[in-house]
């Protein structure tokens, strides 16, 4: 038996969920001269009705009352839909929202308060981002959909059937097919999410935003694009420097996320120098942002970061970096490990980051050495992208970019070396 206080709480949550969803519907479609089938009060009553129907069903120990309420309100929604359709207003969004509201109200009564509230919030958010989702759908291409299907295939079909063990002697013992492909799925997923974000927001939303979202996909692409563009539009070199620095800063955050997901003990060592470089980049980004604002668009043509060919190439690169790092550590000691990290960082910081995380997780490489190797790789990658910007960018771009490069490298390497002393 539900106590009175608890009962009031559950039905109150059902009422609040309906009011929240109805408020969004009223805001989106209400107003003078506009008629909607249900506003904030009606939706609040729908949520309450769902909770009451669930309560009556419990009291009678029969689902008939709940099913009957759903049927009656479903019939109401059906009639409302046909009325709107006759007016030329074709759409099922509000009607489906009514069903969700009733169901969430019932779940609130049954005690699933957290889940019911989460459903109410998610529903409201989905209803509120219509423009963004419509733009995303319009911007999708056949290749994007095919790439998403490929990502689903390698995640749900190929990965589970790969053997989760190594079959070769050292240094080839690091080549575990399952773990290698798992890293492919992980990195592809991050890049694909960044690409989807650009599709939703649109690359034209601003130079700074493009730099941020582009950093999730490819900070090198952002560097190349804005460096080349600075020669055609030298007056915008400072905003271009902002976008490039933002992309580099996102790269540091991305490294920390990768390490944290793979092996958290390593994150405890590597986060200080990486975060220090990222913090310097963030402070410099704020300085560039407030010193010269611009409404200029930041168009960059980002290709879809995922296709099967790209995934296979990254898998091979990751396996090669794993093998080279293991062999260098076996035959050349720590010097070989650090040298391979610097060289690998020139090509791809993700591969060496994941490799060091995996090697430290399996005990092949000590945690302090793996941490320093990751720092050297990120600094190497930053230096290379900085060199690209300095070589390809305009004269006006070089000064702010050079300062960003020097500050990130000095702080990152200096912090890493200082930190190593105390390990």
UniProtKB/TrEMBL annotation:
Domain MgtC/SapB/SrpB/YhiD N-terminal: 11-134
Protein name according to UniProt: MgtC/SapB family protein
Record has Glycoprotein as a keyword: no
Record carries keyword Transmembrane: yes
Pfam families in the cross-refs: DUF4010, MgtC
Membrane-crossing segments per the record: 7-24, 36-57, 63-83, 115-133, 145-163, 178-198, 207-227, 239-257, 269-290, 310-328, 335-357, 401-422
Organism: Candidatus Desulfolinea nitratireducens
Keywords, sorted A to Z: Membrane, Transmembrane, Transmembrane helix
Limits of the DUF4010 domain: 185-393
